[in-house]
Each structure stands twice: as structure tokens, then as C-alpha cells.
Amino acid sequence: MFPIRLAVFKEQFCRYYTSPSKYINITLGQNQIFVLMTNWILDILFPKKCVGCKKEGTYFCNSCVGNILQTDLVCPRCERLAMGGQTHPVCKRRYGLDGLWSLGIYQDPLRAAIQILKYQGAKGLGEILVDITLEYWVKYQPFVLDQIKKDRGAGWVVIPVPLYWWRNNSRGFNQASLIGQILSKKLGLAFCEGLKRVRYTPSQVKLKGRERKKNVFGVFEITTNYQLPASQGKPTMNSILLIDDVWTTGSTLKECCYVLKRSGAKKVWALTLAR
Fold first, then answer.
1. How far apart, in Å, are the Cα atoms of 13 and each of 10, 39, 43, 46, 196?
2. Which of 52, 78, 159, 264 is the most exposed, having the fewest neighbouring CB atoms within 10 Å of its CB?
3. Hey, what CATH class is 68-274 in?
4. What is the pLDDT of residues 187-203, one digit of tens each?
5. Cα(first)–Cα(last) distance of the chain, in Å?
6. What is the CB neighbour count within 10 angstroms for residue 84?
7. 157 - beta bridge partners?
8. Domain-by-domain residue ranges, the chain?
9. Residue 29: CB atoms within 10 Å
């Protein structure tokens, strides 16, 4: 993992030292040259390595991208096979998810990529994983993308599952928020930090199904960023792509969906990198 940490240091170094500064009077051209030179030097000192095969040059080589194992999409309620990941008609609930889409199975190399993104701060992986997701969408046109196209993006908003403020500060960022922001820009959709965690909860990692559900019960609330216009009586952003990194039992995403639909959301699709 040492080369990965060096690459992350390089990424953070570049972000800090190559950002235009109001205190330094340099032209745009000079700044671009400085960026290129700095990246060239740091690429030599701290080369990126593939999370799968450790080949230098990128966090995720084409060969390892091809090794991401995908599986059939399932209904988010019963977790049985479902066309396009849509919730089965008999499984639909008033405050339940309308569908679930995941890029792949939670095992290497995808698992390694997600863990390095989350715990080592390799934010460059976020854009790579979103690009892989969109490349897959272009090839296979998932049902949720068809719905977005049908609406021409109107009323759709990307909302990430939030971290508690303490965990967000200690980690330095929220991986779901990072993925959501990148995805929203590439799709041309609105982005909103529409949810917040109102209390600290233990990590879900070592908890079982019922424990996970109990752990997140009543944890989320709507933020002031997501409002109901008084004149219309319903939110303008009422179709939601709810973003998280991994679907395990779905307890967190289901609780978020419940809060969003109680607040007026019409449609909520869960989107994760892995399941």
C-alpha cells in the first residue's frame, strides 16, 4: 500500500501547490506550465499504481477494469432477480426504494479500489470509478438511465448518503458525496447534500442484518438544502439518485429513502459502486 500512499500524497500536493493563488501574480500560461512540470516531476517520484495488478501509470488499468465482476440486478426489497434493478410490483412500498443499480460485486479489484478511496483518500479513484460506471451505462442502457432521459433530467437530483460530521472531518471527505458530485456533473443533473446524520452510530461493517437496521433507525434528517416550495406543495427535485459506495443489506439506503419520501420525494433509485 506504500506506493498508493505516495500517489495520494502527490495528488494532495498537486491540489495545494498548483491551485491559482490570489497572492501570486502569475499569468494563466505560467500557471499551466508550472502544473505540467510539477505533475511530471511528481509522476516520477510518486507514480500511481493500479489497485489490482500494481502496474504503474494509473489507479485502475484496463485489464483490471475488465476484471470487475458484475452480476444480475436485483430488487432492493427481496433481493431476487429484477429486470433493470426495478423494485418488483409486489415489493413496492410507499416509502421504499424504486430500484437499485450497482457497478459490480464487492470483491477485488473493485473492493480494493473502494477501500483505497475511502480510507487512503485517493480521490482520483472517484472519477475513475464514475467513468467506468458511465461507460457501462453507455453500453447497456440501464432502466434508471432511460427514466432520466425520458424526463430529460428534469426533477432529478443526486443526493449522497451522509457521514456523521465527526467521521467526515476525521476522514477529510465523504466518498459518497465525492462520487455524487462527479456523477451529477457528468450527467448534467443537480446535486444536493439533502440529508444529514443527526447522531453518531457505530460502523455497520461488523453488524448483522437486524443490527444494521436498528443502528440507522431515525439517524437521518432532511437538510435545509432540500426544501418543499410552499407555493407548489411538493419538491421540485422529486426524483432522486441516492448514492453510496457499497450495498450490503441496504439498511442505510432504505432508511435514507424513507426519510426522503416522507419529505415528498416521488421516486428514489439507489446507486452504489458495489453489492
1. 5, 10, 12, 11, 30
2. 78
3. alpha beta
4. 999 999 999 999 887 77
5. 24
6. 16
7. 190, 240
8. 1-47, 68-274
9. 8
The answer to whether the beta carbons of residues 95 and 150 sit under 8 Å apart is no
Q: What is the pLDDT of residues 108-143, one digit of tens each?
A: 999 999 999 888 888 889 999 999 999 989 888 888
- Rounded distance, CA 65 to CA 59, Å? 10
Digit-coded pLDDT (tens) for 139-190: 888 889 999 988 888 889 999 999 988 888 878 889 999 999 999 999 999 9
Q: Is the peptide bond before 20 cis (omega within 30 degrees of 0)?
A: no
Secondary structure in 3-state letters for the chain? CHHHHHHHHHHHHHHHHCCCCCCCCCCHHHHHHHHHHHHHHHHHHCCCECCCCCCECCCCCHHHHCCCCCCCCECCCCCCECHHHECCHHHCCCCCCCEEEEEECCCCCHHHHHHHHHHHCCCHHHHHHHHHHHHHHHHHCCHHHHHHHHCCCCCEEEEECCCCHHHHHHHCCCHHHHHHHHHHHHHCCEECCCEEECCCCCCCCCCCHHHHHHHHCCCEEECCCCCCCCCCCCCCCCEEEEEEEECCCCHHHHHHHHHHHHCCCCEEEEEEEEC
